[in-house]
Amino acid sequence: MKQEYTITVYTENQIGLINKLAIIFTRRKINIESLNTSPSEVEGIHRFTIVINETEDVVRKLSRQIEKLLDVLKVDYNTDDEIIWQEMALYKVSAEVITEKVKVERLLREQGARAVVIRKDYIIFECTGQREEINNLIKILEPYGLLEFVRSARIAIIKKSDGFHNKVKEFEYKVPSETLVENEFLDQNESVFSM
Amino acid sequence: MTANPSQNINANVNITKQATGSQALLDGLIHEGVKTIFGYPGGAIMPVYDALYDYGDQLEHILVRHEQGAIHAAQGFARVSGKTGVVFATSGPGATNLVTGLADAMIDSTPVVCITGQVFAHLLGTDAFQETDVINITTPVTKWSYQVTNAEEIPHVLAKAFHIANTGRPGPVVIDITKNAQLQLFDYEGYHKCFHIRSYKPKPDVRTSYIAEAVAIINEAKRPFVIFGQGVILGNAEQEFRAFIEKGNFPAAWTILGMGAIPTDHPLSVGMLGMHGNYGPNLLTNECDVLIAVGMRFDDRVTGRLDKYAKQAKIIHLDIDPAEIDKNVKTTVAVWGDCKETLPLLTQLVQKNENQDWLQKFNECTIKETEKVIFPEQNPDSEILTMAEVLRCINEITQGEAIIVSDVGQHQMVACRYAKLNQTRSNVTSGGLGTMGFALPAAIGAKYGAPDRQVIAIIGDGGFQMTLQELGTIMQANVNVKIIILNNQFLGMVRQWQELFHHNRYSFVNITSPDYVKLASAYRIDAKKVEQRAELKSTLEEILAHDNPFLLEVMVGKENNVFPMVPQGRGVSEIILSKEEL
After folding, report:
1. Superfamily of domain covering A86-151
2. Which of A98, A134, B251, B376 has the most Cβ atoms closer than 10 angstroms to its Cβ?
3. What is the pLDDT of residues B506-555, one digit of tens each?
4. Do A61 and B323 touch (CB under 8 A)?
5. Phi, psi of B11, deg, nearest 5
């Protein structure tokens, strides 16, 4: 049975890794619902959070393929009840509507939304929560004219996990990973002779 | 294996000197034990070639005629020697020409390190001359790829590349080096081999609980059947494997890439698996009660229809790559690990067994197949020559001592069905990707990988015409390979399918050939053409005893089919021995 799975990937900080991860999904024609990349609790190690809708069998195979990637240290996959997860959304609504209809403000309060910017012409609300809460607020605001909406990728913490501090020591034994070298020549077109 | 020396020790032994990125690269290659490079120069890799000019006494460079030839040669080299093949190519078209070979090496787990030149770092992304996004093009077909823009990265990136390419499940690696990094002078502190990367675990730790579970199942088995793949060869576990099957008296069948891990005429060797494999191994896969898969990946050409594959059997899968476990076939017990370590643990605990009745079943199948297919194919009644009789003659002359390099198609199936191999690392063929044009360049590499052995390339008339420019390489470097073109004037395998499954609609499979004898002579390579049975064996004897490269064209039956066959979409036990059974 297909369901939502959150895949958590601990990786080295390497250029091009996001592509290497993405093609594991695109090769099998699987749509990524949400993808977030951020630092992790361990310095120099990145954490990808990927959400897809698939059967467990497929997710397990994908996770093993991801773990096989060279710069990937560890992959976990979890169903929604095994994680604490949040998404954030921003809503832009015409100020006129909000100020005139007090009811809207009450509704926003009930949904735990908060105004981030208040201007004469528009107000931007922010809501952090799970998918239903965020979608709920869209429904509420739509009748009053939702000018713009954007939702962030999911971030998630695995309930059972102890974090990566100890894990990374297992991986390391002696040699830490190389530091990332970026292209430092890109803005030096004028000063370099080439042919 | 030792750990990396600490920083302190480094400081004592290293004499820092100025070197260019190119010099550091070549010095690194020498430290990795590289002696042969297959390559083709060009604009963006010129600094490396300039440095190579001074390394002529330590590094031999084979100039190929196309970059695809370079990488297939490196693959052939790696497959027969177990060492990592090395390729040089320039940016843009030089690098894109490598892609087929990379994909081939990836799917067949062949250790290759490709060094590609790249435009200056400041020109990246500007659509500069011969600029192409090599890393992103090659990512899906490499085990690892990395772009170097600063010479200081070269020593450790190269060390990492060699470590990755030839440990765990081997594979191809691309290092793309920008021209400025090749030219850049830097403080070179010497080369240090890489033994550990924290985000890379070449082999899983062996868990004894799996061994115990597996042994319990194996010792209960009444009809155990071992199927083995290239993992046995890649893990250098041929002896361990032999000890295992001999202790339990297990019948063992090979996948196309596992061929030769044990001698093909070993008493327990029951033949090849797969679509054109032997009758017994396919049929009895669906009669065994325990299937022990060693270092193989249940490719669809081996399994046929999955829902009709060994459903009655408990399946034990030994593999080094966790991603292979349960990928295609659900296992009862997975024994993760390097089979060089896991096989002896199993051997210790499995009971000695006779399995006489069970082995007899394989014998009966062999007798049936010999009577219906093998004997008539190898000893045809008609005047028309068959591919199988060419292989019979080769076996009679070489006695199984040669390296057989085959291309892709009917002749490949025939070669792998009939060739006799005594030694491991003697079968070089493009298994997973099925790359036509593989054999000629791969044979060149194989000769460099095993200079003391006879290398015979068996190629179809279609595949030969895909990479025949490498005759130039053979001419220039005088590579002593024997090329046997089995010419049936068709793209035979496609024609066979069109005959069997597309109502004889021969759509674009009729292929004409140049005069191969004249072609070879234009390349100053000795050549002959055989059309009569009377000449076949004597000519083969003559060319195999020849001191120089030789090309032999053998005209074989135009519309012969390869049987047995597991038709696509059928189960392995639905294998047919002739067209009439379809």
Report:
1. ACT-like. Chain A, domain 2 (3.30.70.1150)
2. B251
3. 999 999 999 999 999 999 999 999 999 999 999 999 999 999 999 999 99
4. yes
5. -60, -30
